[in-house]
Amino acid sequence: DGSGHFTDSGQNLGTQDSYGISVGDVDGDGDLDVVVANSGQTDRVMLNDGSGNFSIGFEFPSGFSADLVLADLDGDGDLDVYTGILNNPNKVYLNDGEGSFTDTGQLLGDYQTLGVSAGDIDGDGDIDVFEAIGENKNNRFWINDGTGQFTEGQQTGRIRSWHGSLGDIDGDGDLDLIESRVSGSFLFINDGAGNFSGETQLGDLESYHSVLVDMDGDGDLDIVEGNYDEGSGLPNRVLLNDGAGNFTDSGQRLGMAKTHALDAGDIDGDGDLDIVEGAYFDNNQVWFNGANPVELSVDLSTGSEAAGSVITVTATTGVAVATDQTVDLSVSGSGVEASDYQLASSQLTIPVGSSSASTSFTVLDDDLNEGDETAVLAISAVSSALLIGPISEQSVLLIDDDPLPSVSAMSFSAASFSETGAAISLSLSLDRASVSDQCYSVDFTGTAVLGSDYSSSDDDGAAGIQACASAGSTSAQLSITPIDDATYEGDESLSASSGSGLASTTLSDLEDFPTLTALAFDPASISENGGLSQLTATQSNLANVAVCHLLSVSGSATAGVDYQLVDDDPGAAVRLCVNAGELTRSVALSAMDDGVFEGDEVVQVERLGVLAGLSLIDDEGAPSVVAMSFSAASFSETGAPISLTLTLDHSATTEQCFDVSFAGVATLASDY
């Protein structure tokens, strides 16, 4: 990213072990391509599309190469390839300028080549090659004639070598040589004509690869020595040049003695040269020039609340510090609180002569439901001699052992409340808190009815009644508001339950038991010939049960003879029952035509001074004589009496008298 932090592009190029790479614009398109020396497949060109994406280009016939070098070997302006092959002679491939190569047919050497380097060692303007041999045979130079044809030149040491580096070490303008051997690094000085002498040993560590670069910015070439000495455990060294080819060990120790390759460049853009290390069976590393880089590591990436995990946090510098140095640590993460962990020390001190310091990070069991969290431990500041390295933070997954909170108890704020009184509250107690809002369904039971006797607040907007506890809280509340329904119900019970919680209260009723307030016939007068009237009873207020009113009946009309009243009691009494939730009850009174003259009659109903009357209009007139007869057609003066019978057209409820006129020769009072 320009500051020395690298991201894997995700590209996987090739399927076999690669021993060496060289970088350059092989197809002339202005970007940098890669040529790879492979051990198990052919050497290959990886062409860059200009944005860092590579595709396989030319494949060389040779394989099992340990190293290769890109250089303009034939002087035509493009980059050619010299390959160092493990078990066969080395080869030279010339570029056509577009990334396609032709084998020159040269077979150079017949030994186990492990490294090759290129440079003009004899000062004739073309590129020569140095070959490092992995057997106990002499390393050698190959001299270029300017057209890419090589002849064998000077041989150097006969000890197994891994690599050679060319550079002007003594400042005389020609290229000198550093050989990396199993017995250490060796310096050879060039006389300018390609003749090397000296063989000065610079160390006795097994050296795999060295680079010649100006590490201290004084204009001469220093040595970064890449060592592989697993037995001694000594890491890489930096040897500083005095300008005349005399070297002093800087005391810096880079890495852990498994280096196979090194390269140098300004990785972090600060104007000096940094080091990239390729390690065998270990992590590759970047070493920044300047301040000593410090990085952070942890021995566990997961910790458990239940186990109280203790994690070791270590700050490690690139090289041992010359004086005590401090590293400040911070802990962050979404939802991570101080109650989640204990950091034994937020400042580490790396003592003089050491390259690391550690502290403990303990996962605390906080009895808070929060789900698994990720704590990020980071280097927040370092003392002046240190530089925060690219691996400056570590993530630790904290495994929560607390289940979601559940309701453990419930309570109403009052043992009773009235229909016209203030609201009361229902509280839910939780067994623990959570880092997020939690809602709980509440069930209501009892004779009090939700929506008509009381209402309840609801926090979540979802169906049903729910009480919600805010994040971090161990309680939730609902407001219970009474509803004055103007209905007699008596005191009612109300219970609430959720989880293991249960609470009860009483809703006090303020309405009286309903009383009869009015009775009315409609219409108030009917004919006995098919007449019909509605008797309506009205009570004072509603009730949640049926309320029956027993009426007394009086008047001149006779039930079952003059009228029929269908009420709510099959017995003799007149009973009107007002249904629950209603104020009135009506029943029908139907007149009965009895065919009797009786005159108009009255029906009267009454209950505790509340009464109503109905007139029954008689449709019969007074009876009249329709026939008369004697009981005998004749009777004698000395015989028994006979009777005279008058037959009427209808009866009457009262005695009716009729005048009778007698006529004939028999005289009333003298004859009968």
Question: Could you describe the 3D structure shown?
Answer:
The chain is mainly beta and 672 residues long. It folds into five domains: 164-290; 294-399, Immunoglobulin-like, CATH 2.60.40; 407-508, Immunoglobulin-like; 516-617, CalX-beta domain (Immunoglobulin-like), CATH 2.60.40; 624-672, no CATH class. Helix content is 0%, strand content 50%. The chain is rod-shaped and about 200 Å long.
Secondary-structure topology with pairs:
Elements: E1 18-24, E2 33-38, E3 42-48, E4 54-63, E5 65-71, E6 80-85, E7 91-95, E8 101-103, E9 113-119, E10 128-133, E11 140-144, E12 150-155, E13 161-167, E14 176-181, E15 184-190, E16 196-201, E17 207-213, E18 222-227, E19 236-241, E20 247-254, E21 259-265, E22 274-279, E23 285-287, E24 292-298, E25 302-304, E26 310-317, E27 325-332, E28 341-343, E29 347-350, E30 356-363, E31 368-369, E32 373-382, E33 386-388, E34 393-399, E35 407-412, E36 416-418, E37 424-430, E38 433-434, E39 438-441, E40 443-445, E41 454-456, E42 466-469, E43 475-482, E44 487-488, E45 492-498, E46 501-508, E47 516-522, E48 525-527, E49 532-539, E50 542-543, E51 547-554, E52 563-565, E53 574-578, E54 584-591, E55 596-597, E56 601-607, E57 610-617, E58 625-630, E59 644-648, E60 651-652
